TrEMBL record:
A Pfam family of this chain: KYNU_C
Top-level taxon of origin: Bacteria
Protein task: Catalyzes the cleavage of L-kynurenine (L-Kyn) and L-3-hydroxykynurenine (L-3OHKyn) into anthranilic acid (AA) and 3-hydroxyanthranilic acid (3-OHAA), respectively.
Protein's UniProt name: Kynureninase
UniProt keyword Hydrolase, yes or no: yes
Gene: kynU
Molecular function GO labels: kynureninase activity; pyridoxal phosphate binding
Subunit structure and binding partners: Homodimer.
Record-linked InterPro entries: Kynureninase, PyrdxlP-dep_Trfase, PyrdxlP-dep_Trfase_major, PyrdxlP-dep_Trfase_small
Protein family membership: Belongs to the kynureninase family.
Pathway stated in the Swiss-Prot or TrEMBL entry: Amino-acid degradation; L-kynurenine degradation; L-alanine and anthranilate from L-kynurenine: step 1/1; Cofactor biosynthesis; NAD(+) biosynthesis; quinolinate from L-kynurenine: step 2/3
The UniProt record lists the keyword Transport: no
Length: 401
């Protein structure tokens, strides 16, 4: 185990965590940071309750997408003025993909991979149908993305960390390969932001999107974020022309004029209560070193792999063994994966299941300890050894898996 400057024993105390629960699903929904509920209540009572409509000016609500966006930008290697906290991931995919395709009008192919999260692919398919201009979505295996880049590709759109397996793309290398082929690069950071250092500007990424409710702990349905490289600010045009993205929204022009820079990626009114929760959650990062987060994450994941493989030889590692090409999650294949995960949850180890056979465990160093990892592996071993998963109720699929 490598030493770190961040005190992870202290960071764990900054979360409201249920007793007797080992929470290994922060890659789906982050835990509740202390102070979030109080902040939201304060905005409800002291701002909305007393200032009413004046809150947009008196409390700076109008600026929250930019101010919170800049805070997120510090975690993803993005310069001030290049990130907005706004909308949800799916809507932001639509915006940046539409903008990117306009910047490459002579090309019609969107390249992605079969490990990409489905909503990104659905948005691409829907946009292609809407444009009705001959665009197509080309899917290849994750390891074949670079080889598929050629002079037909307009946009390479990939998720940095595969949501099922945790496989991690090399952002800098693939972005350069895309640019060498004349294509633009869009990165989905849903499983990256807050999990390890991201360096969008240094990698010369063109656009990026990501969510606020996983490793950033912004709460269920937290506002997402969108990034656009400064080199595109004067020429990009989003396909969603909302009034908040207008150059002067309170002029109430009948014709749309895009705001300058990243502000044109705004669409509608910001959800101020959700923004308050997101802003409060980001306070956690003020004294945390992202390099320490990565070091600790690797230690946690490596320990879990070793413990599980020693205790549960019937499980197959689905994640890359090499930490350099793995995010902050570990996945195993299990023939009875859904039932196994339900039994684990009942025993106090919360992970999740991804079809068809993946049991998935996310590691958030801010609140997961080495002791938690060993105990989780012991419970998994017990669950398999004594077939505790083999109960009818554990095979009944819930709406969310």
């Amino acid at each position: 185990m490598r030493p770190t400057k961040t005190d992870f024993t202290a960071t764990k105390t900054r979360f409201n965590l249920p007793e007797n629960v080992i929470y290994l699903d922060g890659n789906s929904l982050g835990a509740l940071p202390k102070g979030v509920a109080e902040r939201v209540q304060r905005v409800v009572n002291d701002q909305w309750g007393t200032s009413l409509i004046r809150g947009w000016n008196d409390h700076g609500w109008i600026h929250t997408p930019s101010t919170i966006g800049d805070r997120i930008g510090q975690l993803i290697g993005a310069a001030p003025g290049t990130v907005l906290c706004t909308d949800n991931t799916s809507i932001n995919v639509f915006k940046v993909l539409g903008a990117a395709l306009k910047l490459r009008p002579d090309r019609k192919v969107i390249l992605s991979d079969t490990g990409n999260f489905p909503t990104d692919l659905y948005m691409a398919q829907g946009l292609n149908q809407l444009l009705d201009a001959g665009h197509e979505l080309k899917l290849v295996a994750p390891e074949e993305v670079e080889a598929a880049l050629d002079d037909t590709i307009a946009v390479m759109m990939v998720t940095e960390v595969d949501y099922r397996t945790g496989r991690r793309h090399d952002m800098k290398h693939l972005t350069k390969a895309a640019h060498d082929a004349g294509a633009l690069a869009i990165w989905d950071l849903a499983h990256s932001a807050g999990a390890f250092p991201v360096k969008l500007d240094a990698c010369d990424a063109d656009f990026a999107i990501g969510c606020g409710y996983k490793y950033l702990n912004g709460g269920p349905g937290a506002p997402a974020f969108v990034y656009a490289n400064k080199k595109h600010h004067e020429t990009m045009r989003t396909p969603l022309a909302g009034w908040w993205g207008h150059a002067a929204p309170f002029d109430f022009d009948l014709n749309y004029r895009p705001a300058s820079g990243i502000d044109q990626m705004r669409v509608g009114t910001a959800p101020i209560l959700a923004m308050a929760a997101m802003d409060a959650a980001l306070d956690l990062w003020d004294d945390v070193d992202l390099e320490d987060i990565r070091t600790r994450s690797v230690d946690l994941c490596e320990l879990f792999i070793a413990e599980v493989e020693a205790r549960c030889p019937e499980l197959e590692l689905a994640s890359p063994r090499d930490a350099n090409v793995r995010g902050s999650q570990v996945s195993f294949r299990s023939q009875n994966g859904y039932a196994v995960m339900q039994a684990l949850i009942a025993a106090g180890v919360i992970g999740d299941f991804r079809a068809p056979d993946i049991i998935r465990f996310g590691f958030t160093p801010l609140y997961i300890s080495l002791e938690d990892v060993v105990r989780a592996a012991e419970i998994l071993e017990d669950t398999l050894k004594f077939r505790k998963w083999d109960k009818p109720e554990y095979s009944v699929r819930a709406a969310v898996t």
